[in-house]
Amino acid sequence: MGEEHCGPGGCKLRIAGVSKVFEGRRGKVEALEGINLNIKAGEFVCLVGPSGCGKTTLLNIIAGLEFPSSGTVELDGVPVSGPGRDRTVMFQESALFPWLDVLGNVMFGLKLVPGLTRSARMAIAEKNLELVGLQDCMHAHIHELSGGMKQRVALARALATNPRILLMDEPFGALDAMTREQLYQDIQDIHLRWGMTIIFVTHNMREAVCLGDRVILFTPHPGRICEEYSVDLPHPRDINSQELALLSSRITRDLKGAAK
């Protein structure tokens, strides 16, 4: 399946002095300013904050889809200079191909992995569909799937290429509460089983505390890190638990205080 997932001590992501300025019609817009962040191998880090605080911009810079105006992003000491198979992005919209069935969508990204035969790609795709509970829907058409099932397919496709870092940009934001809660359990299970590094963007404080080992709080205009929180609650976590609610309420209060 290509490169192995990072073990302890590897796959360290270093973000140093990253700022991002966009040129708009009304002049320059400073999206990020002086972001410094180290992410350990196997860590689940959630980036939270209000709209416009630069969370997605930072995720895109880590993915190599955008470049910082200043500062550097390094993966195991190597500068990130563009997209790569070591990093995969999962977006809020599933972005599936409607002309392919479920299996075909998961196999699609594997075409970029050198040395894989079609039968090998199929075996990897089937294994990852089983991982997300869709082994019985391999030949279903995309229009036949619910929103939650589409996101499961997108997750299986993201995992199939065996990325070193999974980047998730509000992937559950458009789903109903019951579907989200099931996916929270699924992604926690996958993280615990694989130990992969996950960076997860959300504006939902409870979601961040439910999933993350660490929660990074951003404030906007420009986007800056104002606080970090270690989440020491045991997994699997229930988003409706009292302990989780208390910590998410504290983060929300801190954000409101920082915005004043």
Could you give the count of β-strands?
A: 10
CATH topology (level 3) name of the largest domain: Rossmann fold
Helicity range:
25-40%
Identify the strand order in the major beta sheet: 6-7-8-3-9-10
Rg is 18 Å
Mean pLDDT: 89
Annotation field: number of helices: 7
CATH class of the largest domain: Alpha Beta
Total of domains: 2
The CATH superfamily of the largest domain is known as P-loop containing nucleotide triphosphate hydrolases
Give the SSE string: EEEHEEEHHHEHEHEEH
Brief account:
The protein is an alpha/beta fold and 260 residues long. The chain is 33% helix and 25% strand. The chain has helices at 55-63, 102-108, 118-131, 147-160, 177-194, 205-211, 242-259, and strands at residues 13-24, 27-39, 44-48, 70-75, 78-79, 87-90, 165-169, 197-202, 214-219, 224-230.
